[in-house]
Amino acid sequence: MTTELDKYDRMILDILQKDGRLSNQELADRINLSPSPCLRRVRHLEELGLIAGYRAHLNARKLGLTLIAFIQVGMDKHTPERFENFERKIALHPEVLECHLIAGQSADYLMKVIVKDMDAYQHFLLHTLTTIEGVSGVHSSFVLKTPVNTGVLPIG
């Protein structure tokens, strides 16, 4: 179910996903609305779950995290218990930025992982990922360059 959004709601969502640190006054000025109704709208969008949270976008390289891998993971059995176990265990590892159950590939999961270097990746692969019960195959692809990485949803 999608929520009906008017032009102000769409502007609020578009602006906040690009700069979540704006004050309510700055946001209200940008959308030509007074601060009080602007704040009510933001709170309503939060209550609806359209704004799921706020966080800082960190510079991974400056934190020493230089290797990004996309990993396709195959499972030996396609049972709810096997998938739930994998998802529960993989969620415990901060290196895993994303994990998606997928269709249309030979793999069952597609994960995005970030680590310091190839040694850290090898440790993650051999001591974490492949030790999870049910993992039957792993295929890794390494990021050379990221020409687009906005994280901004198209608000139309």
UniProtKB/TrEMBL annotation:
GO terms for biological process: regulation of DNA-templated transcription; response to amino acid. Residues 5-66 form the HTH asnC-type domain. The keyword Transferase does not apply. Transmembrane segments: none annotated. Keywords: DNA-binding, Transcription, Transcription regulation. The keyword Ribosomal protein does not apply. This is Transcriptional regulator, AsnC family. Gene3D superfamilies: 3.30.70.920, Winged helix-like DNA-binding domain superfamily/Winged helix DNA-binding domain (1.10.10.10). Coiled coil: none annotated. It comes from Saccharophagus degradans (strain 2-40 / ATCC 43961 / DSM 17024). GO terms for molecular function: sequence-specific DNA binding. Pfam families: AsnC_trans_reg, HTH_24. GO terms for cellular component: cytosol. InterPro entries: ArsR-like_HTH, AsnC-type_HTH_dom, Dimeric_a/b-barrel, Tscrpt_reg_AsnC-like, Tscrpt_reg_AsnC/Lrp_C, Tscrpt_reg_HTH_AsnC-type_CS, WH-like_DNA-bd_sf, WH_DNA-bd_sf. It comes from the Bacteria.
